[in-house]
């Protein structure tokens, strides 16, 4: 069993608190990434989508998980279970210090998550308190004007990493 923490970073101009629309533990937010098989090393061709609100029963034992999938190459079955309560928004302070913010923890058995894809469903607020919601980051940036703060706001240079956690 290996846990992987998804961490994100970006350049936030006059913005703070970048996170999924419903917060870091949003049950409907889709996390998209590829899976690398722990046995044969095969990388999935397409991104896999997992969300906290989608669960399936485990075939063996008790409990549920967010994804059960077989490797198309070696046929080994693996699971991905999301562990809520471990993430927080990316802040202006994180950006100034060049830090990544933890977003979601994944318990991966038989797989390693690779290459998180930024997509639709984000929110952020300006340093003056204006809220921007329903942001689509699939184009790798967001630019708008904050009327309240009378300044441009921008999200750019999106980055992510999956770090193993003991």
TrEMBL record:
Looking up InterPro entries in the UniProt record yields: CXXC_Zn-binding_euk (IPR008584)
Which Gene Ontology terms cover its molecular function?
Answer: glycosyltransferase activity; zinc ion binding
Keyword annotations from UniProtKB, A to Z:
Metal-binding, Zinc
Please give one Pfam family short name.
Answer: CXXC_Zn-b_euk
Q: What family does the database annotate?
A: Belongs to the UPF0587 family.
Q: What is this protein called?
A: Core-2/I-branching beta-1,6-N-acetylglucosaminyltransferase family protein
- Organism expressing this protein natively: Hibiscus syriacus
């Amino acid at each position: 069993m290996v846990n992987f923490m998804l961490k994100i970073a970006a350049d936030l101009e006059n913005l703070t608190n970048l996170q999924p629309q419903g917060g870091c533990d949003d049950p409907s937010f889709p996390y998209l990434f590829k899976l690398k098989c722990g046995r044969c090393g095969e990388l999935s061709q397409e991104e896999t989508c997992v969300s906290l609100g989608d669960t399936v029963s485990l075939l063996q034992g008790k409990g549920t998980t967010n994804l059960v999938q077989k490797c198309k190459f070696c046929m080994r079955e693996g699971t991905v279970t999301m562990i809520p309560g471990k993430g927080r928004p990316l802040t202006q302070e994180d950006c100034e210090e060049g830090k990544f913010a933890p977003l979601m923890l994944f318990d991966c058995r038989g797989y390693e998550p690779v290459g998180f894809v930024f997509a639709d469903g984000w929110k952020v607020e300006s340093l003056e308190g204006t809220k921007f919601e329903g942001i689509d980051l699939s184009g790798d940036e967001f630019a708008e004007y904050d009327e309240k703060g009378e300044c441009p706001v921008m999200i750019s240079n999106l980055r992510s990493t999956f770090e193993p956690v003991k």
